[in-house]
Amino acid sequence: xxxxxxxxxxxxxxxxxxxxxxxxxxxxxxxxxxxxxxxxxxxxxxxxxxxxxxxxxxxxxxxxxxxxxxxxxxxxxxxxxxxxxxxxxxxxxxxxxxxxxxxxxxxxxxxx
Length: 112
What we know:
Elements: E1 5-7, E2 13-15, E3 34-39, E4 44-52, E5 58-68, E6 76-88, E7 93-98
Antiparallel strand pairs: 1-2, 3-4, 3-7, 4-5, 5-6
């Protein structure tokens, strides 16, 4: 805000400096790489990261959404639907992880 003063360490007031918004995570190293995104409500998608901002709004290309099992809505199936180029609103994003370097392992908490 212009005209707002802040106290400095020596007791004097100076003009307030605007803070630069920084993202909590640095996604720049994942540009043009496949990312898996989980959303509030349980939806999941995989797409190529094309852009992002400090609020974690994401732009994904060649995106595929994983569909839910009709009998068990909590279970995600391997069936997908093509979404293409999408914009993901940051507040709805719960998890972001790169596809490369991930390995699916059996759940150690489920007994056979």
